[in-house]
């Protein structure tokens, strides 16, 4: 189910050709410069021309998809995995009815909250580069009461997986059993493992922020919507 209006993202012509599988950067730019591409039946020689909502594009007189990019935020429910194929649990892609997209980063099957899904591999690769240190915030419910000492321990960086030194993270206590944790890396089960080092356990985990995106409070679990232009700009 979608919430909000359908969005068309304004992109340069050569990227649209690439997404239509017409070749790499070089080939698509050459096709355009050699006059093979028409926008609204007019030959266009500039690969960087921005394609607008109403534009149609033809390559050698064949119509192609003028708006092939999609970016959405899903409020992931429990019981789904972030892989493209179903395993023990179904893939989140079942919820959006698209097989041509993938998740930007992964959440565990039992983690809920903000998940970015796209078919734009270049954005996804960029956001997942380890040196980018993209921030993610999680609401955490713990099985034992939280002690204030954990703030300092997380800030100093705990050791997980025997010898991996986590980067400094920010923990804000909300009440005895609830806190917000902000981390800038994404090791497998990272938050759960971090709490285990402090003799506590994560009871429930919900991602509320990813980079500059905040989970839309209007989305119920299992619902998604397309990103706005502004949101896309903020993470691009
Ligand atoms: N840390 C975890 O332990 N699980 C997640 O799904 C995300 C972060």
Report on this structure.
By secondary structure, the protein is an alpha+beta fold. It contains seven helices and 17 strands. The strands form four sheets. Strands 7, 8, 9, 10, 13, 14, 15, 16 and 17 form a nine-stranded mixed β-sheet that branches. It has a four-stranded antiparallel β-sheet with strand order 3-2-5-6. β8 and β9 form a beta hairpin. The longest helix has 9 residues. The protein is elongated, with a radius of gyration of 21 Å. The two termini are 25 Å apart. The site of uracil has 8 residues, from α6.
Question: Which helices and strands, and how do they pair?
Answer:
Layout: E1 11-12, H1 13-19, H2 25-33, E2 37-39, E3 42-43, E4 50-51, E5 57-59, E6 62-64, E7 71-76, H3 93-96, E8 102-103, E9 112-118, H4 121-128, E10 136-142, H5 149-156, E11 159-160, E12 164-165, E13 170-175, E14 178-183, H6 190-196, E15 202-210, E16 213-214, E17 224-226, H7 229-235
Parallel strand pairs: 9-15
Antiparallel strand pairs: 1-4, 2-3, 2-5, 5-6, 7-9, 7-17, 8-9, 10-14, 10-15, 11-12, 13-14, 15-16
Helix pairs in contact: 1-2
The protein binds uracil.
The site of uracil has 8 residues, from α6.
């Amino acid at each position: 189910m979608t919430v909000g209006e359908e969005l068309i993202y304004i992109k340069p012509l050569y990227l649209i050709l690439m997404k239509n599988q017409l070749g790499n950067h070089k080939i698509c730019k050459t096709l355009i410069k050699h006059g093979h591409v028409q926008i609204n039946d007019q030959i266009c020689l500039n690969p960087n021309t921005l394609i607008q909502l109403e534009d149609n594009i033809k390559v050698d007189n064949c119509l192609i998809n003028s708006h092939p990019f999609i970016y959405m935020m899903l409020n992931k429910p429990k019981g789904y995995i972030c892989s493209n194929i179903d395993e023990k649990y179904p893939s989140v892609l079942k919820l959006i009815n698209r097989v041509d997209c993938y998740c930007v980063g992964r959440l565990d099957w039992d983690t809920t909250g903000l998940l970015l899904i796209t078919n734009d591999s270049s954005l996804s690769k960029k956001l997942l580069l380890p040196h980018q240190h993209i921030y993610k915030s999680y609401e955490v419910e713990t099985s034992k009461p939280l002690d204030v000492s954990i703030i300092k321990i997380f800030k100093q960086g705990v050791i997980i997986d025997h010898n991996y030194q986590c980067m400094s993270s920010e923990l804000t206590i909300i009440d005895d059993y609830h806190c917000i944790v902000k981390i800038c890396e994404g090791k497998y089960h990272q938050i759960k493992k971090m709490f285990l080092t402090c003799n506590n356990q994560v009871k429930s985990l919900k991602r509320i922020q990813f980079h500059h995106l905040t989970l839309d409070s209007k989305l119920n679990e299992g619902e998604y919507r397309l990103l706005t232009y502004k949101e896309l700009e903020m993470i691009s």
